[in-house]
Amino acid sequence: MITGDSHQQIIPPTRSRVKAGFVVFSPDSGKRNIVILNEGELVAVDRKDGIRKVVFTMHPGDLVGVAALLEREKFQYSIEATQDSTITIVSEECMESELKTLPVWLLAVIKNLSTKTHRLKDSLHSARCENTLKSLAEYCSHLKAKTTYPTAELIREFHWQTRIPEAAIQEDLKALARREFISLQDAGNDSEIRIASPLLLRIFTDYLKATEHNVPWEPFQLSLLQKKLLIKLAAADHTQKKDAPDWIAYFKSKGLDIEVSEWIRMLRFGWLDAKSETQFATNTDKIKYYLAALRFENNIKGAL
Amino acid sequence: MILKTGEYLCLEGDKASSLYIVKSGLLSGVSNDCGTLHYYGPGSIVGEFSLLENAPREQSLRAVEDSEILIIEQSVLQSTLEQKPGWISSILTFLAARNHIAQENKKRSDLIQALPSLLFVFKSHLQESGSDNIRLSTLCECVAAINGTSVHDVDKLLLSLQDLGVVKIQGEQIQDKVIRAESLQIIPLLYETLRYRALHQKVSPNILSMTDQMVLSTFIKLARESKAPLHDGLYAISTEQLKSEAKKSMHGFTLTMRTLAPLVQKQLLQPSSSYDIHAPLESIDFFYADFDKILDLLELNRIFPLLDKKLV
Questions:
Q1: What are phi and psi of B11, to 5 degrees?
Q2: Domain-located, residue B263
């Protein structure tokens, strides 16, 4: 079994008996100890603003000071005996000497538990999303088109929703402005944001999602034939319903000879909706989406 | 233990009481809760809670490359601890308990954190589409993109909102589920109220005092019984009626210019003539109000404290 250095001399903990009222630990002492209560009763007392407040009561078997000792967290309460009590004090040196005798895997367990808790506590104050630009683009896609919003207020609102730091939001706003999805305007002392197109912001978010997952994004994977079909569909009467052979014949009449496989792909892209079991009509929203993606490919890719 | 590339070491939810130590190779771990892949290289340990508390495996672990795994069984832990002072065991218990508390706090915080984004997406959708509903899949996708919120958290929030009568979850299959707003105004109002509190660090003007709520409830009661014609789309209630009904429903409370002043200032009640706080209430003949607006505000004031309680 893998173990630590067991030849190290162990410094034993101190066991003492204290009278009721004795202050076992004071936050001002600067010491880092684990206090274990063997018998009696202890209380953790907060003396903030000169008011004495009992925060919690300790019963035999309870201990305090682990986080202070292992993670250097400040222990802010004083520990006082409310009855005559027996306590064990594990000092920093004692703890260190004992930890050195533990098997490495057990040390790793202690360290892992401590690190995980620390990480969880830190994450309470940090943003949950990983891609801040995608997050902002999604947020802005829900704002109204051609409407201006005060920048400072928008940043605060978005920060409240996501906890993304304001400096990062400002950078991401510039990134969206560079792509011309929004525009930043000066309005006297304050600046304003104008949403150019919520649709483009939505398309950009979808593109970023696909990129994140290393999935090819369909609008940028279209063949020349598919692009031509898309344009023909955009020009077609959207109220017109046809069955599949009629649509294929329609494309043939426009000089686009397509196989059934191409027809199936168009359905998968969502360019045509089934209106009944056999009848299909164009889905103008989907067609608009693909056309906008193709038209603004450079903006989306940030290659302006 | 030797694992060949692609072999599974354990599946999420498996009963367990041992710790894994990666001696060589690489493992990947994934759980249903969080889709993100975690990697464990040489020296990594996985399964502390299985070792300490017999907790089921938190992740499915799979060998990304040929790997050697050392397994520490609970019996090894026990025999090790028996040779050590009792407080070492107490420290382990304490650290595990502390981690559970931190996990619970994180879960609660994530849930609270996700609410504004959920309301924001919902209200924007209602305003943009003019409909009273949103597909659950759309809502989840948008909230996840803004805030990294899990489907599980969105579900939990929606169930809380459903309990409060704010939304109704319809449909059986997850892909067909639709979230319907019980009132078109409540979602935007709720979002605005939370937003105001967060951005201005004070209570939103939408949150009314108990007296204001009682006066408005009295107005609503009278408006429901009223047969008088609408005045510019507003209900008109005579001061005399309002005063006498308030006395009945508010346990003898006497309405004065001063008690009605906050509602007049917020333009929830509009006096039929100029409002002088020092004049007797009888100097005003009628009060006008938008019935739907008041009803929505009263509903908001019912929900708001309950929502805070439910989430916090």
A1: -115, 150
A2: yes
Condensed to tens digits (0 to 9), the pLDDT of residues B109-149 reads 999 999 999 999 999 999 999 999 999 999 999 999 999 99
Domain ranges, ordered by start, for chain A = 14-122, 132-212, 218-301
For residue B312, being part of any structural domain is answered with no
Give the Cα separation of B58 and B74 in Å (integer): 17
pLDDT of residue A304: 67
Our CA-based measurement puts residue B121 at a distance from the nearest CA of chain A, in whole angstroms, of 7
Tell if the CB–CB gap between A117 and B146 is shorter than 8 Å: no
Long-range contacts of B83-90 (CB under 8 A, 24+ apart): B84/A98, B84/A101, B84/A102, B85/A13, B85/A98, B87/A13, B87/A34, B87/A36, B87/A63, B87/A88, B87/A90, B88/A98, B88/A102, B90/A36, B90/A61, B90/A63
- Mark yes or no for CB contact A130/B148 under 8 Å: yes
> Which residue in B132, B181, B164 sits closest to B311, CA to CA?
B164
The Cα of B248 is separated from the nearest Cα of chain A by a number of Å equal to 44
Does residue B95 belong to any structural domain of this protein? no
Candidates 3.30.70.1060, 1.10.287.70, 3.40.50.720, 1.10.10.10; correct CATH number of A132-212?
1.10.10.10
- The pLDDT assigned to B176 comes to 85
Strand partners, A16: A87
Q: Which residues in chain B have their CB less than 8 angstroms from residue A34's CB?
A: 87, 91
| Pair (B171, B189) in one structural domain | yes
Contact B87 A34 (CB under 8 A): yes
CA-based nearest distance B92→chain A, Å: 7
Calculate ∠ Cα A101-A106-A111, nearest 5°: 105
Question: Which of B71, B87, B101 is most worth mutating to test chain A (most A CB atoms within 10 A of its CB)?
Answer: B87
B84 vs A contacts (CB less than 8 Å):
98, 101-102
Whether A120 and B98 lie within 8 Å, measured CB to CB:
no
Report the distance separating Cα A157 and Cα A155, nearest Å.
Answer: 5
**A37-54 burial: b if 16+ Cβ within 10 Å, else e:** beebbbbbbeeeeeeeee
Contact B297, B190 (CB under 8 A): no
Q: Which residue of A has its CA nearest to B20?
A: A105
pLDDT score, position B6 = 93
Q: Which pTM does this prediction carry?
A: 0.85
Distance from CA of B197 to the nearest CA of A (A): 11
